[in-house]
Amino acid sequence: MSLFKPRYITFDCYGTLINFEMANAARALYADRVAAEDMKAFTDAFAAYRLDEILGAWKPYEQVVDNAIRRTCKRCNVEYREGDGKSIYEQVPTWGPHPDTSAGLAKVAKEFPLVGLSNAATAQIPHNIERIGVPFHAVYTAEQAQAYKPRMQAFEYMLDQLGCAPQDILHVSSSFRYDLMTAHDLGIKNKVWVNRGHEPANPYYNYTEIKDIGGLAAVVGL
After folding, report:
1. What pLDDT sits at residue 155?
2. Domain 22-90 is of which CATH architecture?
């Protein structure tokens, strides 16, 4: 990608900036109900059902998590206990940043406004962002947009709030399925993929790859 000076650098939050520990939370909760050799299949199914749950009309994130874990238990023939979903959901605001996030963002925050776009509950995400310790211009949530990524409505809400066009931003994410595919479809040409090992590379979507947030400064010429 040629050197680009965006009006805003926009970010996916959970997974990209914040260490997304949903699978670990499920592993801990279901350790007494799922055999060790079956746990990866269980947490993979949980991730798949969370994605499926957000593709329709907006509903509260607590409901997304609870529905997904209930469906996972049914599919895997595992006992669901009332309150399991809430227990996992309530851990979300306790999660902190990846080790590279704070220092990497501090380098670019001096020159560019930082914006988060998160599939988060509006009441939860401020706790995660606060743990990063770097100022954000704004953080928008699926709850505010009334749509979860990867739906276009979430991105359109952010662009409307910022008063800018797709070509004005640089969008940063570790996920193609949640962010970079939709960003491509919306005409957001300037994209960065943080390769955290969540998904395989997909060069069709025309992005700059970095291994962690520490590499972002070089992308914008700092």
Report:
1. 98
2. Orthogonal Bundle (1.10)
